[in-house]
Amino acid sequence: MRTAEDRHATEPGGRIRFLMLFLVLASALAFWSAWRSARPIRGTAEAGVLSLSAHDLDGELSLEGPWTVFPGALLSPTDFADPKPPLPQGELRFPGTWKGTAGLTDRGEATFRLRLIPPPGERRMILRLMDIHIAYRLWADGNLIAQSGVPGRSETTEDAHRSLVLAPLVLRGEPVDLTLQVSNHHFRKGGVAEPILLSSPGVAEAARARSWVLSACFCGVLAVTAIYHLSIYALRRHDPPPLYFGLYALLLLVYAAGSNTTLWLAGEILPRQVPPAAMEGTALLSYVAASVTLYRFFLTLYPDAFSRRLRVASDLRLPVFVVAQAAFPSFVAYWVILGLLLLTIPLSGYYIARMTVCVRRGRPGADILLVGCVILAGAAVNDILIHAGAIEGSYLVMPGLFAFVLFQALTLAMRFTRSFAEVERLSSELEGKNSVLRAEMEERDRLEREVIAISEDERRRIGHELHDGLCQQLTAARLRCSVLAENLSGQTGFARDARALGGLLAATTEDAYALSRGLWPVEHDPAAPGPSLEELVRSVRRDDGVSVELHQDRHCAKCANPHATALYRIAQEALSNAMKHAQASHVRVSLTCAGDGRVELIVQDDGIGRIAADQGHGGGLGLRIMAHRANVIEADLSIADAPGGGTVVRCIAPCSRGAAIRETAR
């Protein structure tokens, strides 16, 4: 049977996998929508003439042509107004590249013409021109209606600019001649990469606004993802995967905002002074750097599944791109970029294969990331093949990256869920162990207090037995010895020995009484909680001949502190140290209890000081015993040198009885 702990560990995983299935379906729907949205009606022309009467002009119509081609020339409408206009030398369908058409190569210039035959009546239309390589002008019946960059006959005279332009076009029921002048001396292939669309007003604008809104949302997701992961790394620097994924999201943000995938969203935000070439170069650099960073993310996340040698090859892509951009003409750099993009296809297969291995090994979150890798790989292959001109279609990089980022966020959420569950489990175990430890400590303190109480009772018993037993017997023996000495007064030698024996018995008796009083003063009131300081001070004065001064300021007439015995023993040890080690001639003992819940004991002598006394006898057991007694009653004990010389022992102990009496009096 599964335990509650097992159910707790597996239920979040089940919910996450359900969410993963939902995201897969949502991603598939997004891909399908993106693919279907890029399917306008195709308008087919004959001999460079396209009739619009058979088409619905309320939607979008792709002006595929074929357009007539005038290769190697940048012709304007005035050139076609000449009595002997240039003759076309071929036809080209849009979108497409012009290489091989009428002798054109990858680089060069050409002019294209298409005649539109509109239906009767006046209609205002919009022409959408997107990503024409790489500079162009468009005329309608001799009027310049659109331009991007400046077409030229060389790389120096051409001002390259890839952009999106919405050009107004008025149809009045008469034929309209479209003249498109295109030059390409920078990009690797010349031509028109995107279809030229004709639509009614509002359709193209709405599509552009919708694309920019979605692009802004996507860039916002990337920005939040980057900030979130980089913040996690700032808090946990020993865990590098969030760093690389945060950088990956940040670099993708720069790439997406400055590329055709978002219709050059950055161009609408940044100042117009920013050169388009610089913006596009930065976007391409960010894309290559993001690819390099992605491999490092996988390598640090699953180091035993990804090759470190392949990381070196992956990292080389960035310097290769930088060198190509800096040292070679731009059209060569674009070929290098294409080669780097094509390397992404086998690398995507490697990601999928290694993530599959991670799933089989049971790596946490590998199954979720594998789905994200498959989606991203599919989108990347689609976009690369479109960029290479191998297929036609719509770019899917945004939904692919969006899905991958979501699945990585889901993986991170699952890791955090498991981490939090583990923290809660460990916290629960720690709380249980702390409870056991507290109980053990309380039991140890209770046993220590019980041992001290038993020790004090034993001292009391031994002291009384010494006083009532041995001391009385020694006193009787001393008296009998005195009588014997009187009886032997006529015998000088025996009388002297008897008197010496009597003196020895008298000294022994005094020592026995002193020992009895040290263990427990027999004069002490048995009903009191412990022996009194007055008895201790009198004993020290009598036995050691040292001046001892006692000051007491007590809130209670008779001390009711349950820790009185422990304070007595601390004072006893402090006085003993002052007599034996500090060489004191005067000692001041004070006991202060103001009824505020604490009692303060101070023993101060005028001896040689604590450091000198410690050096004289190398430290002793007495100080440790005092500290132990203070710890048992939860008192604060301090031993320091007095300002004018000597040693000060201060002990502040709690006094619950005094505080209770004071509260009752109020």
UniProtKB/TrEMBL annotation:
Q: Note the InterPro entries from the entry.
A: 7TMR_DISM_rcpt_extracell_dom1 (IPR011623), HATPase_C_sf (IPR036890), HATPase_dom (IPR003594), His_kinase_dom (IPR005467), Sensor_HK_TwoCompSys (IPR050482), Sig_transdc_His_kin_sub3_dim/P (IPR011712)
Where exactly are the transmembrane stretches of this chain?
16-35, 212-231, 243-265, 277-298, 318-347, 368-390, 396-416
Taking the record's annotation, the residue ranges forming a coiled coil are 430-457
The residues the entry assigns to the signal sequence are: none
**Keywords, A to Z?**
Coiled coil, Kinase, Membrane, Receptor, Transferase, Transmembrane, Transmembrane helix, Two-component regulatory system
Name the domain of life.
Bacteria
- Supply the source organism for this entry: uncultured Alphaproteobacteria bacterium
Under the GO molecular function aspect, what terms does this record hold? phosphorelay sensor kinase activity; protein dimerization activity
A Pfam family in this protein? 7TMR-DISM_7TM
This protein's name: Diverse 7TM receptor transmembrane region
- Per UniProt, residues of the Histidine kinase domain are 567-657
Q: Which GO terms describe its cellular component?
A: membrane
